[in-house]
Design a protein that fits this description.
The complex is a heterotrimer of chains A (304), B (333) and C (328).
Chain A lengths: L1 H9 L1 H8 L1 H18 L1 H4 L40 H37 L1 H16 L2 H15 L2 H36 L2 H8 L4 H37 L11 H9 L8 H28 L5
Helix pairs in contact in A: 2-12, 3-5, 3-12, 5-6, 5-8, 5-10, 5-11, 5-12, 6-8, 7-8, 8-10, 9-10, 10-11, 10-12, 11-12
Chain B lengths: L4 E12 L2 E13 L4 E5 L6 H8 L8 E9 L2 E2 L5 H7 L4 E4 L3 H4 L6 H13 L3 H14 L5 H4 L9 H13 L5 E5 L7 H18 L2 E5 L3 H7 L2 E6 L2 E7 H6 L4 H8 L39 H5 L5 E2 L4 E2 L14 H5 L1
Parallel strand pairs in B: 3-8, 3-9, 6-7, 7-8
Antiparallel strand pairs in B: 1-2, 1-4, 4-5, 9-10, 10-12, 11-12
Helix pairs in contact in B: 4-5, 5-7, 7-8
Chain C lengths: L1 H28 L3 H6 L5 H11 L5 H13 L13 H36 L4 H15 L2 H15 L12 E3 L2 E3 L4 H34 L2 H8 L4 H38 L5 H10 L3 H29 L14
Antiparallel strand pairs in C: 1-2
Helix pairs in contact in C: 1-12, 5-6, 5-8, 5-10, 6-8, 7-8, 7-10, 8-10, 10-11, 10-12, 11-12
The chains are: A mainly alpha (304), B alpha/beta (333), C mainly alpha (328).
Chain lengths: 304, 333, 328
C-alpha cells in the first residue's frame, strides 16, 4: 500500500496534476460536489422530501442575504417552502448517480463492442462500426429522448414510474457508447499487431484472454479520458431530459428538475429557484470538464 | 569582389523548459555573387537551421541570439517582420525539401506563381501570368501554357520540385537558399533537378547556399563547401580541396565513410560514436570525444577556424601554437 | 461529378432504411394505437374494423412497405394527441424551426470562425485566452440553462427582449415568417444565441486547432519564404486549407442545431417542430415521433450530401477521378 502511494506520488500524472492550479481547484470542487451529494441526508440543513416539515409560510423565501431573507434558508426556498440548498444537495445526488451509472453503462457496452470489432475485424467490425457511425450522425440528446419516449409509450404508467431512473440511465448510456467503441477499436487495432500480442498468441493463449489481459489494459487511458468528459455530457443530458420533463420522475428531482420547476417562477421574480440549481450544475460540469481536459493532456502530451 | 552574403558569429538559441539550447554557435561564412556554397553535415548538425536563420524563418521559439547576417553589406538579421518579408522572395529565394508539401494543394501552380510575382515585382495580372508561363518553361515543364492552370497534385514529384524552383526564382532573387532540394525525390530525377538548378543559377548569376547531406551533389554543384558539426562549422574551403584533402578529422571521417565510385572497397570506415545532443555538447571542440587525434587542448579550448593548407578547419592540429603531440589514444594504448 | 453524387446518395440509403425501420417498429409495436384511438367503449367488431382499416392484420413486410410508401408521400397518419394529420402539423411548425436554426447557424459561423482564426493566429494574446476560457464555459453550459439565464437577464431584469414566442409573423404563401417584422426579429435574438452558442464554441475551437495545424505546414512556410504578405497567407492560404474540416463539422453541427432546437424551443415556447416533438414524447404520441425521426434523418442525410459537395468545390484533389488521384 505504501509502495503504491509512493509510486503514485512519483508518477508523471501526479506531477502534472500538482503543476496545474486550475486542475487542483477543479478536483477540490468536484470532490466537494460529490461529498455534498453523497452525504446529503447528513449534511443538508432540511429534508426537502419530508412533507411534515414543509410549511407554505416558508414558500418563496429569497436568499438569506436579501432583505426578506431567512437565515434558515441560505439560498431561499421554492413554491412549496422547500430549502433550495437542501434540494440542490439531494438533486445533485440524483444527477451524479444517473451520470455515473450511464457513463459506466456506456463504457461497458462501448468497450465490449470496440474490443470485439477491433479484434474480430472483417464483417463483424464493418457492421458494428457502421451502426456506431449511423448513431453518431444523430445528437445524443435526440437518441436519449427517443429511447425515453418509446419506453414511456411501451410501459404502463405505474411500471414506468418505478423504472424511470433506469430508463434514463439506459437512454443516456445507449446514446453515448459509440465514442467508447470507436476509441477502443482504434487502440485495439494498434495493439493487436504489436509483437507482445503476437507472441502471446504464438504461445497459445486464448483470444479472449489476450483481449482481456493484454489489449484491455492498454486502451484504458483513452477510455478514462472519454469517461471523464462523458460524465459531464451525461450530467448535461440528464439535466436536459429532466428539464424537458422526460427524465427522472418528479418524486426524485434532479438538478434539471429543479431548474424546470424554477423556470415557472422566473417571470414573477423568484429567480433563485432556477438560478442556484443552475449554478450548481454549471460548477459540477465545469469542474468535471476541466479534470477531463487535464487528464487528456496529461495522458497524451502530444495533443497540446 | 565584396561578398553577397556575410554571416558572422551566428548564434541561434532555443529556450526550452530544461534550459536554453544552443543550436548554432559561432557560424561564420561568406557567399560571393554567383557562387554556390555547399553545406554538409549529419542531421541535426545545424545546416538547415542556418538556412532558416538567413531567410528569417526560424521556427519559434528558436531565435538569433548573437552575430549578424549581412546581405550586400546591409544587416538583415534584426529587421522587423514586414521589412524582412520584402527581402524574402525578391532578394533571397528558398527551396524546401519536400515538393509534395511545399505547394499549397488548393491553388493552381499558376496562381501561386502569379501571386509571388505580383507581390514581389508589382506587375499587372496579365504580365505576371505571362511570366508565370515563361518560368514554367524555363524549369522544363512541358506544355507550360496549359499546365499553368493545373493543381500541384496533378504533377509528379520531380515536376513539383521544378515548380518550386520556378517559385523560388520568379522574383529574381540574388541568393537562393536550397534546403535539401533533391532529398525527397527519386534517385533517377535528382540529377536532372540539380542540373536544372545549377544551370538556372549560373544563367541568372544567382548565388546559392545548397544544404544537403549528399556529398555527390556538393562535389558536382558547389564551388566551396562548409562542413557542419554540432551547430558549428568544422571545415570550409573549395570543394576539390575538402573532398580530396580533408583537413579536419571529422571531415576525414566523413569522406572515408562515402563509398568511392572509382574502386571497390571491402569495408567502409565509420566514425565511432554519434554527434552529441544539443543539450550535451562537450566543452572545447565538440568533436573531441570521437576524434582519433584528440589532445589536451581540444577538451578545454574551443577551436577557431584556422588556415589548414587550402581550406580552413576548426581544429587545434592546425594551430602552430599547439604543441604537436601524438594522439592520446595511442599514448595510453 | 454526377457519379459522385449518386454514390453518396446510395451510401445514404441504408441509413434512411434503418431509420425508417426503427420508425416503423415504433409505429407498429410500441403502445397500442387501436386502444388509444378507440377510447373507452368499443365492441369487438369495431376493434376488428379499425385493425383492418389500419392494416395491422397484415404481415410485417406488407405493413412496412405500406408505411414506407405512405412516408414517401408524406403520410404519417393521425397524431394520437391532436387527431390531426401528422404531415400537416409538421408543415405548420417547420418554418419556425428552420428560421431559428438558420439564424443560430449564422450566429455560430459568423462569430465562431473569426474567433477561431484570431485565437489561432495570436495564440498567446490575452484576448485569445479570454475567448478560450469563454469557450470552455460555453461547452459546460447546458443549452437550456443558457436560455434561462438569457431570459432572466434580458427579459426579466432588463426587459429588452421577449422571453417566449415568435412575435408577429407574416404569411408568405404557406410559410409563416418572423423575419419581416420588428417583433419577429426581436423574438429571434435570444433563441438564436441560445441555440448557436454551443456550436459557436465548437466551431471556434475547431478553427483554432486547424489553423494552428495549417500554420505549421511547409506550404505556409514556403509562402512566407516567397515573400507573400501575412494577410494573403493567413486569410488566403491558411484559412482555405482549414475549410475542409470546418465544413464537415459545421455541416454536421447544422444538423445538431435542428435537433437541439427541441431544447431551445421548449425554453422559449417557440412554436416549432421541436416543441411538437417534446410534447409528443411526453404524451407518447408515436406517429409524430416517427415522422419527426424520419424528417430529422432526411435533414441529416441531405446535410451530409451538401457537405460532400462543398468539399468537392473546395478541394481540387477530390475532383480528379473521384479522389483516386490523391497523393502522387
Amino acid at each position: 500500500m505504501a509502495a503504491a502511494i509512493a509510486r503514485m506520488l512519483d508518477s508523471d500524472l501526479w506531477w502534472s496534476f500538482r503543476r496545474s492550479p486550475v486542475t487542483i481547484a477543479s478536483a477540490v470542487v468536484a470532490l466537494v460536489c460529490i461529498l455534498g451529494a453523497a452525504f446529503a441526508p447528513f449534511l443538508a440543513p432540511h429534508d426537502p422530501f419530508d412533507v411534515a416539515t414543509l410549511n407554505l409560510i416558508d414558500a418563496f423565501k429569497p436568499p438569506a442575504w436579501a432583505a426578506e431573507g431567512d437565515a434558515a434558508y441560505l439560498l431561499g426556498s421554492d413554491d412549496q417552502g422547500r430549502d433550495i440548498l437542501s434540494a440542490i444537495m439531494y438533486g445533485a445526488r440524483v444527477s451524479l448517480l444517473v451520470g455515473i451509472c450511464s457513463v459506466v453503462f456506456a463504457m461497458l457496452v462501448g468497450v465490449a463492442v470496440g474490443l470485439l470489432a477491433g479484434y474480430a475485424g472483417g464483417a463483424v467490425d464493418g457492421l458494428l462500426m457502421r451502426i456506431a457511425d449511423i448513431q453518431l450522425t444523430f445528437p445524443n440528446i435526440l437518441i436519449a429522448l427517443l429511447v425515453d419516449g418509446v419506453a414511456r409509450a411501451a410501459l404502463p404508467p405505474a411500471v414506468h414510474d418505478r423504472v424511470a431512473l433506469f430508463v434514463v440511465i439506459f437512454a443516456i448510456g445507449i446514446s453515448a457508447w459509440p465514442q467508447f467503441a470507436r476509441t477502443v477499436r482504434g487502440s485495439t487495432l494498434v495493439e493487436r499487431n504489436k509483437e507482445y500480442v503476437l507472441a502471446a498468441r504464438v504461445i497459445g493463449i486464448s483470444q479472449a484472454r489476450i483481449m482481456l489481459t493484454h489489449v484491455l489494459p492498454n486502451v484504458l487511458g483513452p477510455v478514462l479520458v472519454i469517461a471523464t468528459l462523458g460524465l459531464s455530457n451525461a450530467i448535461i443530458s440528464e439535466a436536459t431530459l429532466s428539464y424537458l420533463g422526460a427524465g427522472v420522475p418528479q418524486t426524485q428531482p434532479s438538478l434539471g428538475t429543479l431548474i424546470r420547476i424554477g423556470n415557472d417562477f422566473l417571470m414573477s421574480g423568484e429567480w433563485w429557484i432556477a438560478v442556484f440549481p443552475g449554478i450548481a450544475l454549471i460548477v459540477m460540469v465545469l469542474s468535471v470538464n476541466l479534470l477531463g481536459d487535464w487528464l487528456r493532456d496529461a495522458l497524451n502530451p502530444r495533443l497540446r | 569582389m565584396a561578398p553577397l552574403l556575410e554571416v558572422r558569429d551566428l548564434r541561434v538559441e532555443f529556450p526550452t523548459r530544461r534550459g536554453t539550447l544552443t543550436a548554432l554557435d559561432g557560424v561564420s561564412f561568406d557567399i560571393a555573387p554567383g557562387e554556390v556554397l555547399g553545406m554538409v553535415g549529419e542531421s541535426g548538425a545545424g545546416k538547415s537551421m542556418t538556412g532558416a536563420a538567413i531567410i528569417g524563418l526560424l521556427e519559434p521559439p528558436g531565435r538569433i541570439a548573437g552575430g549578424e547576417i549581412r546581405l550586400n553589406g546591409k544587416r538583415i538579421d534584426n529587421l522587423p517582420y514586414e521589412q524582412m518579408r520584402r527581402i524574402r522572395g525578391r532578394e533571397i529565394g528558398a527551396i524546401f525539401q519536400d515538393p509534395l508539401t511545399t505547394l499549397n494543394p488548393l491553388y493552381t501552380v499558376g496562381r501561386q506563381l502569379v501571386e509571388t510575382i505580383q507581390s514581389n515585382l508589382g506587375l499587372d495580372a496579365a504580365e505576371a501570368r505571362r511570366r508565370a508561363v515563361h518560368w514554367l518553361e524555363q524549369v522544363g515543364i512541358p506544355a507550360a501554357a496549359q499546365r499553368v492552370d493545373s493543381y500541384p497534385h496533378e504533377f509528379s514529384g520531380g515536376m513539383r520540385q521544378r515548380v518550386v524552383i520556378a517559385l523560388a526564382l520568379c522574383a529574381e532573387p540574388k541568393l537562393i537558399v536550397a534546403d535539401e532540394p533533391t532529398t525527397a525525390l527519386d534517385v533517377s530525377i535528382q540529377a536532372q533537378v540539380i542540373t536544372l538548378l545549377k544551370g538556372l543559377a549560373r544563367d541568372k548569376g544567382t548565388s546559392m547556399m545548397l544544404v544537403t547531406h549528399d556529398m555527390g551533389v556538393i562535389a558536382e554543384t558547389a564551388d566551396r563547401v562548409a562542413v557542419m558539426y554540432a551547430g558549428r562549422i568544422a571545415e570550409i574551403g573549395p570543394v576539390r580541396e575538402v573532398v580530396k584533402h580533408p583537413k579536419h578529422p571529422y571531415t576525414r571521417g566523413l569522406m572515408a565513410s562515402i563509398p568511392p565510385l572509382d574502386r571497390r572497397v571491402e569495408k567502409l570506415a565509420q566514425i565511432d560514436g554519434s554527434m552529441p545532443r544539443l543539450s550535451a555538447i562537450p566543452p572545447g571542440c565538440a568533436f573531441n570525444p570521437r576524434c582519433p587525434e584528440v589532445f589536451g587542448r581540444c577538451r578545454v579550448e574551443r577551436p577557431v577556424l584556422l588556415e589548414a593548407g587550402g581550406t580552413r578547419a576548426a581544429c587545434w592540429l592546425y594551430d602552430p601554437a599547439s604543441e604537436k603531440r601524438a594522439p592520446e589514444a595511442m599514448r595510453h594504448g | 461529378m454526377l457519379a459522385f453524387v449518386i454514390s453518396r446518395i446510395l451510401q445514404a440509403l441504408p441509413v434512411m432504411a434503418v431509420v425508417a425501420l426503427i420508425s416503423f417498429a415504433m409505429f407498429a409495436y410500441v403502445g397500442d394505437p387501436v386502444a388509444i384511438m378507440l377510447g373507452q367503449d368499443f365492441t369487438e367488431a369495431q376493434r376488428q374494423a379499425l385493425v383492418a382499416s389500419l392494416g395491422l392484420d397484415q404481415p410485417f413486410f406488407v405493413q412496412f412497405a405500406k408505411f414506407l410508401w405512405n412516408a414517401l408521400h408524406g403520410e404519417f397518419g393521425l397524431s394520437y394527441r391532436l387527431s390531426r394529420p401528422v404531415a400537416e402539423l409538421i408543415a405548420e411548425r417547420a418554418p419556425a424551426t428552420l428560421e431559428l436554426a438558420f439564424c443560430a447557424a449564422l450566429v455560430s459561423i459568423c462569430i465562431g470562425v473569426p474567433m477561431g482564426v484570431y485565437t489561432g493566429l495570436y495564440r498567446n494574446s490575452w484576448l485569445s485566452r479570454l475567448f478560450l476560457t469563454f469557450s470552455l464555459i460555453g461547452v459546460s453550459l447546458p443549452t437550456f440553462l443558457i436560455g434561462i439565464l438569457l431570459i432572466l437577464v434580458f427579459s426579466v431584469w432588463l426587459g429588452w427582449l421577449p422571453s417566449f414566442g415568435r412575435g408577429d409573423t407574416v404569411q408568405v404563401g404557406w410559410w409563416s415568417t418572423g423575419l419581416l417584422t420588428a417583433s419577429g426579429l426581436k423574438a429571434l435574438i435570444l433563441p438564436s444565441i441560445t441555440l448557436g452558442l454551443f456550436q459557436l464554441t465548437l466551431i471556434m475551437r475547431l478553427v483554432r486547432a486547424e489553423m494552428l495545424e495549417v500554420l505549421r505546414t511547409d506550404y505556409i512556410k514556403f509562402a512566407r519564404a516567397r515573400g507573400l504578405a501575412n494577410r494573403v497567407i493567413h486569410f488566403g492560404h491558411a484559412l482555405k486549407n482549414t475549410l475542409v474540416p470546418v465544413i464537415t463539422v459545421a455541416g454536421l453541427q447544422l444538423g445538431g442545431i435542428i435537433a437541439f432546437a427541441i431544447v431551445t424551443e421548449t425554453v422559449f415556447q417557440w412554436p416549432g417542430m421541436g416543441l411538437l416533438f417534446i410534447q409528443s414524447v411526453n404524451s407518447a404520441d408515436i406517429p409524430v415521433m416517427a415522422a419527426y425521426l424520419m424528417l430529422i434523418a432526411l435533414v441529416f442525410v441531405t446535410i451530409n450530401l451538401v457537405v460532400d459537395l462543398l468539399y468537392y468545390a473546395v478541394d481540387p484533389r477530390l475532383r480528379v477521378g473521384g479522389g483516386a488521384a490523391r497523393g502522387h
